[in-house]
Amino acid sequence: SIQPAERLQELPTQFFAKLVGKANAQVAQGHDVINLGQGNPDRPTPPHIVRALQQAAENPQYHRYPPFNGYMFLKEAVAKRYKEDFGVDLDPEKEVAILFGGKTGLVEISQCLLNPGDVCLVPDPGYPDYWSGVALSGARMAFMPLRESNNFLPDYSSLSMDDVNKAKLMFINYPNNPTAVSAPASFYEETIQFAAKHNIVVASDFAYGAIGFDGQKPISFLQIPGAKEVGVEFYTLSKTYNMAGWRVGFALGNAEVVRMINLIQDHYYCSLFGGIQVAAAEALTGPQDCVHELVSVYQSRRNALYSALDRIGWQANRSQGSFFTWLPVPKGYTSESLADRLLEEAKIVVAPGVGFGESGEGYVRLGLLTSEERLQEAVNRIAKLNLFG
Ligand code: PLP
């Protein structure tokens, strides 16, 4: 029989595949399921971006292999956006790598930097794709618990010195999936000092960099002096422009890390389809009203959901960014037992916090990825379960 290589057996099981399976079974039985469990934007890509792809697809130039590591015009476009949005200067030639979505880079960076026996510091709870790259590199993860008492920021002083001394790479992610908090500049300053002192490369996952609530624009790690010396930021068009299916992301910052990521990509891929690169450049350099509109849609949904939850006595801190809400589970439940009950009795899918790591236990994640009416309907159904006695 055909046996997988050992490294494949190291890959974490996809917790959320189980969730999707349970939800699909309910849909197959004919139930009207409200899926708040996944992070898939529900709205379409703005039409001017789609038109840019249609036109570019007609151009035979893009039917050939694209240049290795992608077109310079797209690297220039993302550098221009970072300058305008964050005041950050990036050299498009040396400090920008084009990725198939942020996800590929988040997995590849571990393969670039980690040897067996090395440690990677990973937030808990956190986005599970960080685990996969570490597993494939044969290194070991040391979790950094994110606790509500510390505003869901890691406390570097509480980490084991043995782990810190062996660490070569660390992930941070604000606005955070799943806790939905944003980080202040002081946190990034502390991170840069910590990383420089212990010689650790920082991977800042800025997938939700455009989505901040109550007028608070998220801060980019690269805005902070010294950031480029210690790490890179992963940026993606998936959430900002409703382009999750297009698979466009970037690694930005430290030239040496960018060079390594490009090197790995050379071996796996050539680059994205040229037409997609043209459309991605249009997204970044064209009118940005679509981004403002997107933020205000999520803001209204967030406000509507929390007001409804307040009315049924489910109290939680307001999300500061991302398109998620992170809610403490009521007494008597685990995150999984609550998620199971919500699915079976209310036909609502939520993500149990434990799927993001042990420290996620005690919470469930609900996405703001459906209309205000459907969110309201979800809370009406939850109200009937009398979760709060
Ligand atoms: N990082 C976080 C925290 C995410 O939630 C996601 C997507 O869900 C990604 C990265 C990956 O995004 P993409 O590969 O679509 O760029």
From TrEMBL:
> What SUPFAM superfamilies does the entry give?
PLP-dependent transferases
Q: Which GO terms describe its molecular function?
A: pyridoxal phosphate binding; transaminase activity
Q: InterPro entries recorded for this chain?
A: Aminotransferase_I/II_large, LL-DAP_aminotransferase, PyrdxlP-dep_Trfase, PyrdxlP-dep_Trfase_major, PyrdxlP-dep_Trfase_small
Query: CDD domains annotated for this entry?
Result: AAT_like
Entry keywords, A to Z? Aminotransferase, Transferase
Q: Which domain of life is it from?
A: Bacteria
Family matches, as NCBIfam families: PRK08068.1 (NF005977)
Q: Where is the Aminotransferase class I/classII large domain?
A: 32-382
UniProt name for this protein: Pyridoxal phosphate-dependent aminotransferase
Q: Which cofactor does it need?
A: pyridoxal 5'-phosphate
Record PANTHER family: AMINO ACID AMINOTRANSFERASE, L-GLUTAMINE--4-(METHYLSULFANYL)-2-OXOBUTANOATE AMINOTRANSFERASE
The source organism is Paenibacillus cremeus
